[in-house]
């Protein structure tokens, strides 16, 4: 079994980005600039956004964090997004998800300038991704593709089973895996909450990607011998033995599944860190006007 080391891969990607940014600056160019909007005080969301800001500093980007109380109105949020759309000093904009229930996330994503949508969630970028036009790929699926690529894992003709159909991970990764690219060219099955006999599907997977947020849902008897297993889950579960009172759990029962796999991602240290590096990569591409002129 080979561990897919997301932390090490993420560090390598960030070093590559930092070198490119240093070069841009040395040639008199400006640093890429990411603006991040956070609403509310959810512990996980605050950690992720703070880590994004720290990662920006590490690679030499500029960043702006805009933090609203949970009570912010949708109108206020939309007005801020429109203001940033017009701000030529900002290359990339993200709104951390999930948003509070009183805010319509689709309206928020649609009002964003798709040229600055470095999360790749705007319908224009989603559509471009589907038909193979230049687009920002959503960071987590992009990270999964990067991991498969860097570890040279064969995907062509393989059966890839994706568990979960979210717009952030499950749906886009299933599209990317089915496309005629490397990694890709896989035969893809998407499973979700209404799938009957989930195990009968997951057991057929050469590549199993799980993104449901249900700790330890995938047990050893649900995985084929020699499968590649990508665990996207990062749920905080109470744990009194830890100083912070919780620990992170993936969707896969790693301790019992790992020995059956050819490759597997750990949690933490698997797909999560790549999400941040691929966001940086998209922001760099935005600054270079590489995706949309
Ligand atoms: N606007 C967005 N919102 C959300 C996205 C996204 O891509 N854009 N994805 C997730 C959360 N997410 C990034 O925002 C994210 C999740 C996990 C990690 C990560 O590094 N996880 C570490 C553990 C970190 C910890 O201690 O909690 C790991 O798995 O090793 C980074 C980013 C939903 N919202």
UniProtKB/TrEMBL annotation:
GO terms for cellular component: cytosol. NADP(+) binds at residues 164-166, 234. Catalyzes the oxidation of 5,10-methylenetetrahydrofolate to 5,10-methenyltetrahydrofolate and then the hydrolysis of 5,10-methenyltetrahydrofolate to 10-formyltetrahydrofolate. It comes from Rufibacter radiotolerans. Homodimer. Residues 138-290 form the Tetrahydrofolate dehydrogenase/cyclohydrolase NAD(P)-binding domain. Signal peptide: none annotated. Residues 4-119 form the Tetrahydrofolate dehydrogenase/cyclohydrolase catalytic domain. The keyword Ribonucleoprotein does not apply. Pathway: One-carbon metabolism; tetrahydrofolate interconversion. GO terms for biological process: L-histidine biosynthetic process; methionine biosynthetic process; purine nucleotide biosynthetic process; tetrahydrofolate interconversion. Keywords: Amino-acid biosynthesis, Histidine biosynthesis, Hydrolase, Methionine biosynthesis, Multifunctional enzyme, NADP, One-carbon metabolism, Oxidoreductase, Purine biosynthesis. One of its GO terms (molecular function) is methenyltetrahydrofolate cyclohydrolase activity. The keyword NADP applies. This is Bifunctional protein FolD. The gene is folD. Belongs to the tetrahydrofolate dehydrogenase/cyclohydrolase family. It catalyses: (6R)-5,10-methenyltetrahydrofolate + H2O = (6R)-10-formyltetrahydrofolate + H(+); (6R)-5,10-methylene-5,6,7,8-tetrahydrofolate + NADP(+) = (6R)-5,10-methenyltetrahydrofolate + NADPH. Its EC number is 1.5.1.5, 3.5.4.9.
